[in-house]
Design goal:
The structure is a single chain. This protein has about 475 residues and is an alpha+beta fold. It contains 21 helices and nine strands. β3 (about 40-45) and β4 (about 50-55) form a beta hairpin. Residues about 1-15 and about 205-225 have low confidence and may be disordered.
Length: about 475
């Protein structure tokens, strides 16, 4: 074997001769044979399903049975496959050894095999890091960030070319399916960890006094200054992430307040007057749940969100008129039926669920709704034993469909524009100084508005009786009857 002299910050690595690589390649090809090779299966990693994943103990068992060697030797052979880049780990990718347990591995694509005599060029590594920086939105791992900054200074004259290449590769990767995209990212990361290993990478090829990690040493060792620096950098990035999330939350809060500030009677004057300050209920009368002509501010509020539109019964009726003209009212009808089931009585739950199934979900239903098969299957299965929230998933799906498509078409439709034109803008109600003084005095005295109203009615009745003409004959007859 030949030995390549490593850089000062990296350990030495043994490089096998070409005939040794060919033997390893022949074994890897045989391991992937559909008939006598290893059988891979789909494994769920985080939120993505990875195809053709193999456990480490299965690889070691196959090597031991095929070569008729003990398990220890098979484990060493499997470690060499990982160290030379023919197999890579899915979970602990910085540990370039084979583990005889349930750890998941995949076969590396032949494009990255050592037999291809790839030169691990700094420009290619810079393109890889730039593409990863775009995908991670600047949140690289500490060692990647260090390499990225170094290459940015070293290759500064052609950095525009590197960023352009990284952007094009990122766009091309977005066109792939998510499992294929994740698999290719893992393959590319495994190649660069093999050729640009970060410090403390556990590899069987490390040698010399500067080896990165002793595989026989206890992993619970003292923290070095370099580890402490990287941990500090990780904490700083975590703090920056929390600041970004906080800024996003504050931005959403500011946007909400800016949108609703003119519609809060306590923050802005409301027309015609604030019923909590003037004891005049005209505002509530004009904004009753069902009125023929709503106010302009009420119609404007419908445009804020679909939730605001459906919460207001007057707005929901106007939305129904639009859906009726569009011949697509089944989504809103199903949403209302789900709300009725959610807030209805427990005794009528079974009958309502059966009616909803026959009307919206059964094959050939008169008002069949279009939802994805998975949600439909879960909903129909849940209706076998109905409860209040059995339609929650389907209702959310339908709500999002209306929010993304129907709601915006409604805001642009003649129906909404017509109600905007008809909406009234009440004038400010002017109170006389005596009325304002009386209201203030009653509030300071703590008199209930209902008592005040009764007093006003009694005064009106007395004034009407005093101003009415007196019937003398009727008065004399009453006196005679009393005698």
């Amino acid at each position: 074997m030949t030995i390549r002299t490593a850089r000062p910050d990296r350990a030495e690595h043994f490089r096998p001769r070409m005939h040794c690589l060919k033997k390893l390649e022949a074994v890897v090809v045989e391991m992937q044979d559909p008939k006598c090779g290893l059988k891979g299966s789909e494994q769920k990693l985080n939120v993505t399903t990875i195809p053709h994943a193999i456990a480490g103990n299965d690889i070691v068992s196959w090597i031991a049975n095929k070569m008729k060697i003990p398990t220890e030797e098979a484990l060493v052979f499997g470690t060499m496959l990982v160290a030379y880049g023919y197999v890579y780990g899915l979970q602990n990718h910085r540990k370039l050894v084979m583990c005889n347990d349930g750890s998941l591995y995949r076969f590396q694509t032949p494009y990255f095999w050592p037999i291809q005599k790839w030169v691990a060029d700094d420009t290619d590594y810079a393109v890889y890091l730039a593409k990863r920086n775009i995908r991670k939105q600047g949140l690289l791992e500490p060692y990647e960030q260090e390499h990225y900054n170094h290459l940015h200074k070293w290759l500064n004259p052609k950095w525009d070319f590197i960023v352009t290449q990284a952007t094009e590769q990122y766009k091309a990767g977005r066109e792939r399916k998510k499992p294929d995209r994740v698999v290719f990212d893992c393959q590319e990361r495994a190649y660069w960890i093999l050729n640009r290993p970060p410090r403390w990478t556990h590899s069987a090829l490390d040698s010399g006094p500067d080896r990165l990690m002793d595989p026989n040493a206890d992993e619970t060792q003292k923290i070095t200054f370099d580890q402490y620096r990287r941990m500090n950098l990780f904490y700083q990035q975590a703090i920056m992430r929390s600041k970004v999330k906080s800024s996003v939350s504050l931005g959403a809060l500011v946007k909400y307040i800016t949108t609703y500030k003119n519609h809060d009677p306590f923050l802005a004057p409301c027309l015609p007057s604030n019923p909590w300050l003037t004891d005049n209920d005209s505002y509530w009368t004009l904004n009753m749940r069902m009125v023929d002509v709503p106010t302009k501010m009420r119609v404007e509020r419908w445009s804020f969100s679909l939730f605001e539109l459906l919460t207001d019964l007057r707005g929901r009726d106007d939305f129904k008129i639009f859906l009726k003209k569009e011949f697509s009212g089944e989504n809103l009808a199903f949403w209302e039926a789900a709300e009725e089931l959610k807030w209805g009585t427990a005794s009528s739950m079974s009958s309502k669920a059966e009616t909803i199934f026959k009307t919206f979900l059964a094959p050939g239903a008169p008002r069949w709704i279009n939802i994805d098969g998975r949600t439909m299957g879960l909903t129909v299965k849940g209706l076998e034993h109905p409860h209040r929230y059995v339609l929650e998933a389907a209702q959310t799906h339908v709500f999002l469909l209306m929010k993304k498509d129907t709601f915006f078409r409604y805001l642009k439709s003649p129906v909404y524009k017509d109600i905007q034109k008809k909406a009234i803008n009440p004038e400010v109600h002017n109170f006389s100084p005596s009325q304002l003084e009386q209201n203030a005095r009653s509030r300071s005295a703590g008199v209930h508005p209902l008592v005040l109203w009764q007093q006003e009615e009694e005064q009106k009745a007395k004034a009407a009786a005093a101003s009415a003409p007196v019937d003398v004959k009727a008065m004399m007859s009453k006196i005679d009857r009393k005698k």
